[in-house]
Amino acid sequence: MSIFEHIDKRMVIGFVIVFVALAGGFFYWLSGDSGSAGTGAITVLPLSPLDATLGRDLLLALATLKSTKLDTSIFTDPVFLSLKDFGVDISAQPVGRRNPFATFDAGSLPRTPSKQGIPGQTIKTPPPTTTVTPPAPKTPASEPGGFDIN
Length: 150
Prior knowledge:
The protein contains three helices and no strands. It is mainly α.
């Protein structure tokens, strides 16, 4: 009793031929001639005079920036030290909905901070909105070639 009795020999031969062809194509692709132009995956372009000029200008600008020295004595000057910060602290704002495009339901409403402890302040809820349908567009006037603008 053999394990291979129920396997069709033509299918096995076909699979072997396909495997050998794929393996041969893979090795041919890996061992491609890298010396010829146009067959490799990487193509080397010749250096143009414009590239050399732009590169030189960039290196000159970089050298100029590196040679720049900043005078930091201004930070110890009494006039600078006498300056005061008049900035305004920004208080925390309530966080909005996670998805602003989601439909309104109880779980998607924003959480408002608690106003307890502030006397005389009440939270007003906005009135429900009503949907207003726009009027139908006007049809062309009875005059030929014109529209009623009124």
